[in-house]
Amino acid sequence: MKNKSRGLKYRFRAEDFYKILKSQKGKCFLTGRDVSGRRTQ
After folding, report:
1. How far apart are CA 1 and CA 32, in angstroms?
2. DSSP string covering 12-36, please?
3. Which of these, 14, 30, 10, lies nearest to 22 by C-alpha position?
4. Which of 22, 25, 36, 41 is the most exposed place for a label (fewest CB within 10 A)?
5. How many CA atoms lie less than 13 Å away from 38 in the CB half-sphere?
6. Does residue 15 contact residue 29 with C-beta atoms inside 8 Å?
7. Which superkingdom (predicted)?
8. Structural contact between residues 35 and 28, judged by C-beta atoms closer than 8 angstroms
9. Which residues, in sequence order, are CB contacts of 27 under 8 Å at separation 6+?
């Protein structure tokens, strides 16, 4: 699918994810569950 917005596209990088995760102290903002940076199954 193509995004039809013509504005500036922002690429979400891994560094941004970890910055947000660190500011939330490892807790999910919506659910309050513990969030780790590692991938789990």
Report:
1. 32
2. --HHHHHHHHHHTTTB-TTT--B--
3. 14
4. 41
5. 2
6. no
7. Bacteria
8. yes
9. 33, 34, 35
CA 17 vs. chain centroid, Å, equals: 4
Q: How far apart are CA 41 and CA 17, in angstroms?
A: 19
User: At a CB cut-off of 8 Å and minimum separation 6, what does 18 contact?
Assistant: 37
Q: Which tokens belong to 20?
A: 């947000």
Structure tokens, 5 = 């917005």
Cα dist from 18 to 3, 5, 36, whole Å: 25, 27, 10
> Which tokens go with 38?
């590692």
